[in-house]
Amino acid sequence: MIINLNNVLWSSILLKGGKKGKKAAGEKGKGGKGAGRINGHHQENGMENMMLFEVVKLGRSAMQSVVDDWIESYKHDRDVALLDLINFFIQCSGCKGVVSGEMFRNMQNSEIIRRMTEEFDEDSGDYPLTIAGPQWKKFKSSFCEFISVLVRQCQYSIIYDEYMMDTVISLLTGLSDSQVRAFRHTSTLAAMKLMTALVNVALNLSINMDNTQRQYEAERNKIMAKRANDRLELLLQKRKELQENQDEIENMMNAIFKGVFVHRYRDAIAEIRAICIEEIGVWMKLYSDAFLNDSYLKYVGWTMHDKQGEVRLKCLTALQGLYYNRELNARLELFTSRFKDRIVSMTLDKEYDVAVQAIKLLTLVLNSTDEVLTPEDCESVYHLVYSAHRPVAIAAGEFLFKKLFSQREPEEEGAPKRRGRQSPNANLIKTTVFFFLESELHEHAAYLVDSLWECGAELLKDWECMISLLLDDPLPGEEALTDRQETALIEIMLCTVRQAAECHPPIGRGTGKRVMTAKERKTQLDDKTRMTELFAVALPPLLAKYAVDSEKVTNLLQLPQYFDLEIYTTGRLEKHLESLLRQIREIVEKHTDTEVLEVCSKTYHALCNEEFTIFNRVDIARSQLLDELVDKFNRLLEDFLQELEQSFACDPVHMCLNLPQICCSAHDLSGWDLFTSNFKLLNTGIENGDMPEQIVIHSLQCTHYVILWNLAKSSEGSSRKDDMVTLRKQMRAFCMMCQRYLTNVNTAVKEQAFTILCDLLLIFSHQMVSGGREHLEPLVYSSEDSLQAELLSFILNHVFIDQDDDTNSTDGQQDDEAVKIEALHKRRNLLAAYCKLIIYCVVDMKTGADIFKQYMRYYNDYGDIIKETMSKTRQIDKIQCAKTLILSLQQLFNEMLSELGHGFDRSSSSFCGIKELARRFSLTFGLDQVKTRDAIAMLHKDGIEFAFKDPSTQGEGGPPLNLAFLDILSEFSSKLMKQDKRTSSGRNVHMYLERFMTFQMALQREDCWLPLISYRNSLQAGGDDDTMSVMSGYSSRGSSVRSKKIKPPGATAGTSAAKRKLPEEESSSSSEVWQQSLQTPVMLPSPHLTSTAMRDPKRAREDSFMGHHQQTPQHHQTPMDYNRRGTGLMEEDEEPIVEDVMMSSEGRMDDLNEGMDFDTMDIDLPPSKNRRERSELKPDYFDPASIMDESVRGICLPSLIGKCPGVLFLCNSQLEARSCTIIRMIL
């Protein structure tokens, strides 16, 4: 058959234009008669046979018109038309071969498939179903539509001729068992869609049979006088024909199911398995009477243990379509009881999409019946509302809402709507509080609210009911809320207000800011208006009731931050504002808790908004309060300095010293001259040395804020020249004061002084004059070398320590995991503060060598910070970064020599640890050798100079003392470009090496000279191994060479050489210029390389870094084992659920095949890129144990948020948005 492409496309155009473009019968006949023939001979060059494939590929034509043309051709000459259809399937598989008429008549299907396999393109592994691009975007849908329309149009005659369908099914069955993935994938998809189309036909036949039977019964029940015998005979004949047709369809479906599905639902390719499971779900949903039974459901249940997430996902979506229809629930009882545990375990699937669909499936099960899921099953879903992954949490929230909140008290018709604690939501809100308390995750109410927001927003926004539960007396017979329940309710109420006002999820769940729709913005404005009207009135009495409870007050005082402050004026609520200000003032006077006072300060800041008319009123109240606090502070401070010992025990002094620091964080107190009094207090603390740590810490923070507020004024250009001079003096004096406090005996004071000092050095560095702020140049402060050394010494003594060495941990808290995490978080912040100084060139980059050399030893604690610092420094200056890296290795090498001596064993853990660190450093340079060319060459230059700088103590015949360092340097040889190794380029490393070597050195072959030999070998240009290194073995002459393995002759084209596989880390930025000429150095004695800052001997580690180099830095997570094996779905099943079907060994698969009516394929592919799935197609399809281990993950709860080592907060002081920078460093 030739499908006239131009006619088809033109017909499609006419149809789109609103006209019916249909070819005449003569045209169809002509197309069918001359199909594939020239001078009476069939065309075998494939050009005409590809026409049907081209039409489907374009996807622009009306598919029914294409199918109608083929049907007309089939009616004229069924062999020619069927040959075109066969070639269509071959072409859709990506095969260039064409089945000729002679092959079709004389060859078996297996022979044809073997011939077509030889015609595959050896250079490409793609085929139409997998090719990307706009041309193939709609191919799959067009391909499936063609098969569906073909069966639908042939359902009344052609499919029953025992020729067309038998041929197609036989061909697809053979192709589906092919060794070639393209054939298997395409034919399986075609067979499954063909089966779906036949299911529709069978369903129509079943409906027609039922109608015919009813008509027959109705006619037969008539009295003899009215009964039409002819009609009865016609109905009997029709029913017989329908029964015969149905039997034919059932035979076809059985052939496809047993010939294709039973084999391919466990294919090695996940896409093929997913197709099978997706389609069987469609069959059971469409024709439940025939397919919705345990014989078919078991395949879905078995495949829920699949290794691939996409297959497990198809299982769940297929089951959702069944459980959604409550009429089918009775047929699913046995399946539910057998596979319920597996579905519950899939809520913890490592693929989040699978976990979401598993929870949704359980929600549908819950809707059908409450008896299936046990309390333990429900609890395993409940805790997922605290998941960090928002879709999982929302799905779990919907499940929770259906389970606990779906039953409301019915309201009587005509009765007034109940409000407050009498409303129907009152009990539901109490239930929410009870659940929150029982979950024992009190810090994460925001995540619970976010999970329930989409399904229960109406309940969560019933603030009137919440206020009533807190303020009103309980009704007769009602149990009042306990203190703990009231605290939880206030926290939940605050979270609902925040969610309604900000319209974005809490930290850790958001994927970035989402643009809100007009409807969402209107809802947000309405919610803010309503919450302001309610809480503006209710907040003062709530504060009055809970004024002495710090936790409740802290949450309540955050509510005004989300108000629409204009409502105070438009709603005539000024008296309530006055009441609120009085309550806040009383709270400030009563409380000494830092958290409460900070919230009061932020509330004043939120209310003092100049855009609203209430600003003057609030500003006056704030100023009066600050005047009183500052006066009290100065008065008590004067007394405190005069009578130091008596004042230490006075709590009001501590409180009054605390208040200015808290107020300074959000309010400008520069007009009260707090710098002088605080500086005097700090100076007294230095002189006396016994001042309480809290007073010193608060005074440091307060002074810091005063300087920053003065800087903010100077940045705006509103300050005078005298003010700039004063600020410069204050800043330098305060930096010197912080430097003096670095030697304080109290660790907390030292950490606070270090943090503030790092902030000030960064803020007042040369960076501050950028962005048009040249007038601030007099304020620029450059740190001296002594200060840099002291800062580095502090880092080495307080950060790079063991957990047990942390002096902040008390004896009773050594085993407290929370305390250890908090201590680690503090140390990470300290290290981040110093790394900022390196990144922004505030301190010399070479000081980073002392940080970089700790990369392996403290990888788990600070690896992400150190790695990001290396990356940033490389972006600033590649060559200087490379010199810093080699300097860190030289320092470690010298430390090893001082510990082990020059006669150390190169197989020792210390030396191997340095080599491993060098290898890690090498990986950070990435794959782009052009960008890092100059930096790598300079690194080798410095390494060579270091290796030869100290001559041998044995005379000229002995090796240099540091010659073994070349073994470490060889780890970077793979990053050299070949032309930089031995060629005559200006960067010739080999030539530079030879300038240090003598003729006698080149002839040496003793073991002590192996580092030089291995390093020279690694510089061989054009060698097969760029990563060769030689290491001395445990014997005197033993050595091991790490080199590339030779590829075996039988390896396929896609097989790579067996090398050590390591993740390539990010490359550096743009290339630099070779800055130093390769001059012949003079071998003069140079100073011994040590750390750029001396560590405190008392704090030094006894065990060196080298002893730990073998501890692979990786984060371990113990998988949860949900592997539940059981017997078959039914005792008579010939395929057990796990033990037989989900095989992982060839021997067990052979045992399975012996008991089956079908054969499994034994795949042996020829070497071809198109058929490179040799490892994929081996018959270990499923291993249930490994499936379960890989498919189950631990849910990341928000309890870990903020404590995760992958998030680095560079905000050292609590400067809110003005001096706070957050950098995410991810390993």
UniProtKB/TrEMBL annotation:
Compositionally biased tracts (Basic and acidic residues): 1095-1106
Domain SCD per the UniProt entry, residue ranges: 261-346
Cellular component annotations (GO), alphabetically ordered: chromatin; chromosome, centromeric region; cohesin complex; nucleus
Coiled coil: 202-255
Record function comment: Component of cohesin complex, a complex required for the cohesion of sister chromatids after DNA replication. The cohesin complex apparently forms a large proteinaceous ring within which sister chromatids can be trapped. At anaphase, the complex is cleaved and dissociates from chromatin, allowing sister chromatids to segregate.
Subunit: Part of the cohesin complex which is composed of a heterodimer between a SMC1 protein (SMC1A or SMC1B) and SMC3, which are attached via their hinge domain, and RAD21 which link them at their heads, and one STAG protein.
Family statement: Belongs to the SCC3 family.
Protein name per its UniProtKB record: Cohesin subunit SA
